[in-house]
Amino acid sequence: MVQFLKHFIINEFDYLYLCGVxxxxxxxxxxxxKLLNSGAIIxxxxxxxxxxxxxxxxxxxxxxxxxxxxxPSYISLEYALSFYGMISERVETITSITNKRKKVFSTPSGIxxxxxxxxxxxxxxxxxxQIDSFRYILIASKExxxxxxxxxxxxxxxxxxxxxxxxxxxxxxxxxxxxxDIKALDNIEKSYKKxxxxxxxxxxxxxx
Length: 208
What we know:
- The protein is of the alpha+beta class.
- The protein folds into two domains: 54 residues, no CATH class; 146 residues, no CATH class.
- It is built from ten helices and nine strands.
- The strands form three sheets. Strands 4-5-7-6 form a four-stranded mixed sheet. A three-stranded antiparallel sheet has the order 1-3-2.
């Protein structure tokens, strides 16, 4: 078993990857069942798996799983803000945005929530980050993650209300706000056409 599992170079993989590793077997489905029953691999959802704890190459990357479980999607909202260190609270639920129906998956690796965003707004501001030599993730830029948060809130009356939300509700320090890319935010604002995001774009410009 240990020798066989050396073929796995990543902890997170889909059914096609698994079948590729098992291609020498006449009945790969039977082998998959045995691997599942032994705990060598764990099913996260249909078609998505991770290695069992005893066989992993380091920790499971929940960000990679978030992209695999339901797509198209990208990591955003509270989890992305925590990932970037913009909020101090530890976020356990992995939050993502999709242009399909909203979904929630409770898995052996945690809870994954997917929130809907209009397909016209969806593409702008998504970043591909390299995790290691083999794995990449799709995640909102800092500007898009905050815009996604604001897009879901009731419209603020003015910049003062917006500032209270950013600094008191989300507890984001002003130095993090000042590092945001104005041009990137302008592109998002043009796509979202949402009062809160427009206020946010103007607020950043005033800080400069």
